[in-house]
Input
Amino acid sequence: MRKPTVVIYDRLSRLFAEEAPDHRIAACKAYAESQGWEVVHVATDTNVSGASRLEDRPGMREVLSWLPRADYVLAAKLDRYARSVLEFQRLLKTAESTQTTIVTADGVLAPQTSRLIVNVLASFAEYERDMIKARITASKEHFRTRGNHLGGLAPYGYAVSGPVNDKRWVIDESAAAIIRDCADKLINHGASLTGLARDLTARGILPPAEHARQRAGRKLRGSKQWHSTTLRDVLYTPAVRGWLVQSVPGTKRGAITNQPVLDAEGKPVSAGPEILSAETWSAVRAILDGKARGRGSDRTGKAVLLHIARCSECDGPLYRQRREVKGKDYSTYVCRAGVGKRGIHRPNVIIARNLEELVTADYLKRFGSLALMRWAEPDGSAVLQLSEVTEQIERLAGNLAGLTPNGTAARAVIGQLTALEKRQAELQEESAHAKGRWVDAGGTVADEWERRDEEGRRGLLADLGTRVVVRPATPGAPKRFDPSRISVEFEGPAWWRDDPAAGALAGVAMEVSGLLD
Output
């Protein structure tokens, strides 16, 4: 007979020697043993406030990721879970969605009385929470329909102006000029996001968060670097048209996924003047969509074989010495331990272009047709989101029953339900995994190789366990490229190494198809 499973959780706001969590965890383990439960995981949070959000705690994220596979979650006392009623209720609802029971080792929340105590605790906060929520929702909806700023920082390129109940966006000319200049260079001068971000950093232009701090007279945090993703978000968001934006139900809030707030006639609600015209903004978005390269594409331009090409004499790395004469590339890979009077072995130098071409050809021949995989690390947020999305679906389904069939409102609700149900299915699949896993990144290794620059390609070589060993040239041999000096080894993709059985099967398949020598 299967033992019930339990995940133990402990939290400390501050870590002192006399407050170490060991005794509480030991108490939880003893309680679990007395109940006949199997402890499958122990998660702890140190220096974490009980009022913080569940998803902001590393240990709690571990607990959330285990919920679909655990019968109980156990803490020493109730306050270890949370000191916020709202956050505790979020945990309870999430646990309820996975049929998991929240208990404490001190007996306050026991398996037999947990649901009763929970309902009593929840009832005290429910009415006040609903009233506050209703007031805030009604207020936000009122100001949203008027195009008022709803709080927080204004989008980059704008500042907030006006009385408390009638705040609007006004153009921040210095930031708006940056947006217009970057848009022009993208459309008319073939610029790239990476190059533009590098140029902004070199010119000392503050990135959005630091610019807002400087404008408000606050102390800067010291980060003055622009990233291509930051600039992409600044140019891509509908806010540059002067429109209020909101996240799409079921998607993560961000410049790429946000949509304009629409009025009763389906038109975008304006919160201020436009920075980019409709024509310019459409052109910028088309360019950015066409140049999208996906996560993990490195773009720093370092040598392809840096830390991959090694010296046979000392096992040290070979470094690329760049040299160009009359437009021709004479760059080489050199072992520093074999250079000059202090060299510890004979010189080891090889033509860079030929070495890179040989390794690239061998690499793509072996692995180019493989589906590229990426590592997905669970953080528990999927389980939490699943509970919240399910609650939204139930609420909308209840509203739908009171609407006129085939009416405008009913069709709108059905559209929202469809999107939420799709997201629910995705989250159910994601929450089924308590541990990290390799997932299909889309496309093949060869496809990704073409999309990346030198540094990005170096990352791909490293991911597949590439090791290139170069031997010094034989004294007196002709000074030309000699492939016999090179030994290329591949451990295989990381997802093979993590799953030897799958790797062996894939290797056999490749041999059969003639892809391996």
